Amino acid sequence: MSSSSTAADETTTAVHRSIAVEVGQERAFEVFTEGFDSWWIRSHHIGAAEMDTAVIEPRSGGRWYERGVDGTECDWGYVIAWEPPERLVLVWQINGQWQFDPALVTEVEVTFRPDGDARTHVDLVHRHLERLGDAATQIRTVFESEAGWPGLLQRFAASAESA
Amino acid sequence: MGYQATLEVLADPTRRSIVERLHAGPLPVGVLAADLPVSRPAVSKHLRLMKDAGVVRMTADGTRHLYELDLRTLDEVRRYLDGFWEASLASFKDAAESTTKGRTS
Fold it and tell me: Do residue B104 and residue A27 have CB atoms under 8 angstroms apart?
């Protein structure tokens, strides 16, 4: 992982999201990782085929990928920190054109902070978005394209509004 | 400015090089040009085009003009991923809370 970035940088180059879940820390980590396929939104896949399974392999260096209904696998990135039940760091290598790009390294850090036995605060930071570079502009072209993912965006909007 | 113009802007290797150099921060045209295998007037012309397409913008540092990446594009990516992770975490919460059996710590 590279050099430090300032707090000011992070406000423009990272996304922060938190949620409280009414389960213990260990369970929260387990559902997030082992149970990844059970909650990952099915339409969030990059393969040509419909997604069959989404997987986070449970170890440092493990793969993060999807398997399509036709059996093909598409990498999304890999695990760089596997610290159950407290912390998980994934490398996200999906570029602005929704393709795996091995040269692209953005980081998704997820921490699980216990609040008693039956509640956990889950904090997610997706950082180094500046590395999407000119892909940033390409993502916009996907948004604006009618052939893009309009349905997906609508679902995001709906879910954001009902949350 | 539509996406086709933006794509056209980024289809050019010199302009992509300019975007890469500006990732590190704002630069004056002279520094950008010194780094690139094209003339300074050519770089200025590229920058003008990129400015019109909303890829870069110009700021002033005293009497110097600096070019920087227009963060509107980055901000859109950020907003998009913000919504993406918000929806994903909500789905995770549902899954975690609907399967409360299993270990408790």
Answer: yes
